[in-house]
Specification:
Helices cover 43% and strands 20% of the residues. The protein is built from nine helices and 14 strands. The longest helix is centred in the C-terminal third of the chain and has 65 residues. The C terminus is likely disordered.
C-alpha cells in the first residue's frame, strides 16, 4: 500500500490540534522563507508557536514547528500583505472546510477580520488571504488564465470550493449507509474514493482492508467526531518516514509504525524531511548547473590555449609574408586576392603564395600579417601558463562538484547563500 498523502483525515486531526493550541494567540510575525512557504509566529501565554504552511504540490503540509526558517532579505509581496493585515491580530479559530483539504485560520486584526485559507489541492495548492467581504486580498500563487479552474487574483471574489458528495466525516449515518449499500459488492477502491468527499486513496484502501469495511468506517467516523486521534509516523522497510496519519492504519506493518506526540510532529517528521530533500535537490541542481557552465567555459579556454600553441608554428610564416609584401608593395595592385612572391628567406628563393584582403592595400595587408604574427607569438607564450591555471581551476571545480553532490541540506543552504557562491 502506498503511504498516505496530506489527506482529509490528517487535516481534520491537525485542525482540531491547531484550534486547541492557537485560538487566542496573537500573530507577532509573518515570514516567507520561499515562494511556497509561509510561517506565522504567534504568542499564546506562555508559549511562542510557529505555524508552517507549505503549498509545494509535492510535499504540501501544515504543522507547528520549532525550527527557525531562513528568510530572504526582502519579503515577497504576499508576505508583506500578511504582515500588514495579520500581524497584531488574534487567531479566532482553525477549521477544516467540510471534508476538503482546506485549512482556514480566522484572524481578527486592527484592519478587520481576515481568513488565511490554505488550500492543499494538488497542483493548484495555494494560500489565500480573504477579507470579511469574501474578496481576495492577496495569494501566494495567482491563477488568472482563461483555462484556470478557479480565478485567484487580488480584489476578486474568493471562489469557494464546493463538493456535492457526502462528507465522509460529517454526513449523517443514514447517508453513509445508503451510499455504501449502493456500492458494488465487494466495493472497489476507486468507487469508494469517488463516492465520498474527503475519501483519499489511502483512506479508501485502509477501509477496504478491514474485515468489515463498513463497520470500520463507522468506528473511524466516531473517533473523528470525538476527536480521538493517535498520531503516528509511517516508515518504509528502511525505517525512513514516508507518511503521517492520525490513527494506526491496520494494514500497515506494525514494526513500521512510530507513535508521535502530536499530529504536527508526525507531519513534520514525515513530510518535512521529504521537503528538505526536495529543496536540497533543487539547490544542488542549481549549483551543479552553474558548475557545468563554468566547466564549459574552462573547456573553451583550454581549447583556445591549445589553438594558440598550434598557431605559434605559423607565426614565422606570417611574419615572412608581411616582410615580402612590404618589399614588393609597389608591384602589388589593390584588389588582388593573392600574390606569388619570391621568398628570399627560403632555399632557392622558392615562390610563396600569399592570400590578400582585396579591400586593403599591399602595405595594409603586410601590417595585418605582422599583427597576426605578433598576436600568435604573444598568445603562444602565455598559453602554457594559461593551461596550468585552467587545469587548477578544473580540479577545484571538480572538488566543488563532489562537495555539492554529497552535501546535506543545511550545508547546501550555506553554499547557496548570496556572497558564499
Amino acid at each position: 500500500m502506498k503511504p498516505p498523502s496530506f489527506d482529509s483525515l490528517t487535516i481534520r486531526a491537525l485542525a482540531a490540534e491547531l484550534d486547541r493550541d492557537l485560538v487566542g494567540a496573537q500573530v507577532q510575525k509573518v515570514y516567507q522563507p520561499d515562494e511556497q512557504t509561509v510561517v506565522l509566529q504567534a504568542h499564546k501565554y506562555p508559549h511562542n508557536r510557529r505555524l508552517l504552511i507549505n503549498v509545494n504540490p509535492g510535499v504540501f503540509r501544515a504543522h507547528l514547528t520549532e525550527s527557525d526558517p531562513r528568510n530572504p532579505e526582502g519579503p515577497p509581496a504576499f508576505c508583506m500583505a500578511l504582515r500588514r493585515f495579520l500581524e497584531g491580530g488574534r487567531i479566532l479559530s482553525v477549521q477544516q472546510v467540510g471534508a476538503d483539504r482546506i485549512l482556514v485560520l480566522s484572524v481578527s486584526a486592527a484592519l478587520g477580520s481576515f481568513r488565511l485559507v490554505a488550500e492543499f489541492l494538488g497542483r493548484y495548492a495555494n494560500i489565500v488571504l480573504v477579507d470579511e467581504d469574501d474578496r481576495i486580498v492577496e495569494a501566494i500563487r495567482h491563477f488568472g488564465t482563461p483555462s484556470a479552474i478557479r480565478i485567484i487574483l487580488p480584489n476578486r471574489p474568493y471562489p469557494v470550493v464546493s463538493d456535492t458528495r457526502p462528507s465522509v466525516w460529517d454526513a449523517p449515518d443514514t447517508v453513509i449507509d445508503g451510499v455504501w449499500n449502493a456500492l458494488a459488492k465487494p466495493p472497489v477502491l476507486k468507487e469508494v474514493q469517488d463516492s465520498f468527499s474527503g475519501m483519499s486513496p489511502f483512506l479508501a484502501g485502509t477501509i477496504l482492508s478491514a474485515d468489515d469495511p463498513l463497520a470500520y468506517l463507522v468506528s473511524l467516523r466516531k473517533c473523528v467526531r470525538q476527536g480521538r486521534f493517535s498520531p503516528v509516523v509511517l516508515l518504509d522497510g528502511n525505517n525512513d518516514p514516508v507518511g503521517a496519519w492520525p490513527i494506526v492504519p491496520p494494514a500497515w506493518p506494525p514494526a513500521q509504525v512510530r507513535t508521535a506526540e502530536t499530529m504536527s510532529r508526525a507531519i513534520e517528521e514525515a513530510y518535512g524531511r521529504r521537503s528538505d530533500a526536495d529543496k536540497r535537490n533543487t539547490i544542488a541542481r542549481r549549483l551543479l548547473a552553474a558548475i557545468d557552465r563554468e566547466a564549459r567555459t574552462l573547456k573553451a579556454r583550454r581549447e583556445d590555449a591549445r589553438r594558440h600553441i598550434a598557431e605559434a608554428e605559423r607565426a614565422e610564416e606570417w611574419r615572412v609574408a608581411g616582410e615580402l609584401l612590404s618589399v614588393n608593395a609597389h608591384a602589388i595592385p589593390r584588389g588582388a586576392k593573392s600574390v606569388s612572391l619570391a621568398n628570399y628567406y627560403a632555399e632557392n628563393s622558392a615562390p610563396m603564395t600569399i592570400a590578400l584582403d582585396p579591400s586593403l592595400s599591399a602595405r595594409e595587408n603586410a601590417e595585418a600579417y605582422f599583427r597576426k604574427a605578433r598576436k600568435a607569438k604573444t598568445s603562444a607564450e602565455r598559453a602554457p601558463g594559461d593551461l596550468q591555471r585552467i587545469a587548477e581551476l578544473e580540479e577545484a571545480l571538480e572538488i566543488r562538484r563532489q562537495a555539492v553532490e554529497s552535501a546535506d541540506f543545511p550545508t547546501l543552504l550555506d553554499v547557496d547563500t548570496p556572497g558564499n557562491t
